[in-house]
Amino acid sequence: MRSTWTLLTLLALTLGIAGAQEMTQPEPAIPPVGTDLTVYFGDLALVRQIFDVELGEGISELPIPDLPQEVIEDSVHLSAVDQGAFNILESGFDAGQPPTVVSAQALLNAYIGQPVILVRDGVRQSITLLDITGLPLAGPAFLVEGEVVLPLRGVENDSLILPNPPVELLTITPGTPPSFKFLVQNSGATTRRLQLIYLTRSLSWSADYFLTVDPNNLADLAARVQLSNSTSHSFDNVNLALIAGNPSQAGLEQDVFFAAGLLARAARAEAAAPPSFIQEAIGEFFLFVLDRPISIAAGETKRLTLLEASGITAARRFEAFPA
Description:
Blueprint: H1 4-15, E1 23-24, E2 34-40, E3 44-54, E4 58-64, E5 77-80, E6 86-94, H2 104-110, E7 115-120, E8 123-128, E9 142-144, E10 147-151, E11 159-163, E12 179-186, E13 191-201, E14 203-213, E15 218-229, E16 235-244, H3 252-268, E17 277-282, E18 285-290, E19 294-296, E20 301-313
Parallel strand pairs: 1-4, 2-16
Antiparallel strand pairs: 2-3, 3-13, 4-12, 5-13, 6-12, 7-8, 7-11, 9-10, 10-11, 14-15, 15-20, 16-18, 16-19, 17-18
């Protein structure tokens, strides 16, 4: 995407003025037909989505909506995986808007200089709110029979009541997720199979190992993976891979293609053994590929079985190291 202007120059030389061509609009974006999710140690994950989209001949605008709020903008890469020329002329990123929530601070600011109700020991008293500095709020705000109740620290049941709160201060909006909009040149089939790859923060995994030894020196070993999705995005029916090791993040674009290569290798791995995860060593990294699709919602944490073994012969060994 950093080579946009170079690409535009080459297209102008070889194809003529792009603006003279008819602008066609594609169909609205559709859900991906397949998603691969690769999660690293260290709060980083790679997402690879395959989807089919209708594109006319020539230049079209292609929106890619509903990305995680934590997406790394510089890592987004779009390409065609089928036959036919496909070029990206421009790309634009919309960071979206976070959801709005009811704020006690905003409510209190709206009532400065206005009458409110102070409740102490169960007695309601009308007062005028002159300043909110140091107001000892004790917890979340509540809407009770058309009044906002703000508990106060100190005596139990003490509270500040805001009567007739403005509707606009109580309105909660879900926000909008980040999105990309591409200007693409299509010279292939009308229906194109495209690949979108990007990195996102706030996905991580860790492993816990459990070893038990019985009196006969036979051991059982189990490993459990904890997968945490702290993003704003839910991932449904994805192919999951876990990477032990932290790739260099000096250049995020290089990381994208490195991780995409790992995904390609994972796709070729054969599920020849019953464990849930297929294991493969790749250089200094270790790859675990779950042998079934998985869904994980925004804010969800799941525990998965990485490996299990029983009846392992255990032995005690003492080693001495010279000082």
